[in-house]
Design brief:
Structural class: alpha+beta
Number of strands: 6
Distance between the termini: 68 Å
Strand order of the largest sheet: 1-5-6
């Protein structure tokens, strides 16, 4: 008799395994594939179910129900739709933010110019201080004290110059990427493969949990302005009936709440 061949282990790439935790015990949710025979046709269908691993022995977790993947995805879509924005609103808001960005660049350049003048003045003071020491006009102790103070000022100004030079541009770039990401978010999720769906969920959620068959997503910090401000802003936008009316409605003022909040992220 020949040896029996061992059954090959089939590896599953479950979309959301490792991304969701139990809202009661904090353990990860795992997934498993189950088969079901349809009595009428005899067809065998495969379903994926997610459930709490309940690995923490010191916690008596009551979350024992499994959630089928298609139902889980409906819950995910409902949650991520809270962070989706209209394409028209995106374009309108980005246009306003770009106009504001130009104003900020002008202000930034003035600040940079002032800081550079300050930086050059500090360098001159250090040079004069060296001359005074060489001419024995001050003691070594006085020289060290004054020089250390000036060097600290020089380093501080230099750091401020570096930050001023890139922060505004980086902020606008990140905002544009964020706005494009959350436009048509549900459609992207529906059409995406399992990698894209997992990536969307990972990007949207800082903490994702399930408790009593309810999904909760705590959003990433950069999404907070959308969660808190967008619904009211969308209502304002929808009140504007025509593109011409947009041009005369103070377009740059309405996105201000999002504009201001986004700078912290």
């Amino acid at each position: 008799m020949g040896r029996k061949k061992k059954a090959k282990y089939k590896k599953h790439n479950f979309k959301y395994r490792g991304l969701i935790v139990c809202g009661e015990c904090g353990c990860l949710y795992t997934a498993q594939e189950k088969k079901k025979i349809i009595k009428k046709t005899g067809e065998i269908r495969k379903y994926i179910y997610y459930s709490c691993t309940r690995k923490k022995k010191d916690i008596n977790c009551s979350q024992r129900k499994s959630i089928r993947e298609d139902r889980l995805e409906e819950m995910i879509k409902k949650e991520i739709s809270k962070y989706e924005i209209m394409p028209e609103f995106r374009d309108w808001t980005l246009d306003a933010l770009k106009k504001k960005h130009k104003e900020e660049v002008r202000d930034r350049n003035k600040i940079i110019e002032t800081r550079r003048k300050t930086y050059n003045m500090i360098l001159k003071k250090i040079d004069r201080l060296v001359d005074m020491k060489l001419n024995e006009q001050i003691t070594d102790g006085e020289y060290e004290t004054k020089r250390n103070s000036l060097v600290k000022d020089k380093e501080r100004i230099n750091k401020e110059l570096d930050q001023s030079d890139t922060r505004a541009d980086r902020w606008l770039e990140l905002t544009e990427k964020a706005f494009y990401f959350i436009t048509n978010l549900t459609e992207a999720f529906n059409k995406g493969d399992f990698k894209l769906k997992a990536s969307i969920l990972r990007t949207i959620g800082k903490h994702i949990s399930i408790k009593d068959e309810k999904l909760t997503i705590i959003p990433s910090d950069w999404l907070l302005p959308i969660k808190e401000e967008y619904p009211a802003l969308e209502k304002e936008y929808l009140k504007l009936e025509t593109a011409k009316k947009l041009a005369y409605s103070g377009v740059s003022s309405i996105p201000e709440p999002i504009c201001n909040k986004w700078r912290g992220y």
